[in-house]
Amino acid sequence: MNTGPGPHTPPQTEAELASIVRLYAVTDGRTRARHHLSMHTVLGAGRRCPPGLPEESVRIVELCRLRARPLVELAGLLRLHVTVVTVLVSDLIDAGALTLPVPEMPGEEHERQKLFALAAALKRRYPGAAAKAG
What we know:
The chain is 49% helix and 6% strand. The chain has helices at residues 14-26, 55-66, 71-78, 82-95, 108-125; strands at 42-45, 69-70, 98-99. 20% of the residues are buried.
């Protein structure tokens, strides 16, 4: 039996457990974001920041106001799991607090970023709409 720390090691202190419970509450237990975001998706500050955001979300917006940042960098700076940050970022995009700026570089990643930005804008404008194929 392995007793060393590993990926499935249970929380050892009350502070670790409280942190996990808080993140669960902040994301409402969600593990999937409404937007398709990769770890390399670059995020910028939006036009408005709604009141009453959790401290993690406020910190994300503050970091993006300083300069546009990739999602994975935000997770590292906040010392949070990428999945948690992805859920929070998705909510902030819906609230208009973050944007998906389109970088000025040619290539496939540029086109993908434009499509993500367009999809986010359409979801925000028409929240109840569903895509139809064909």
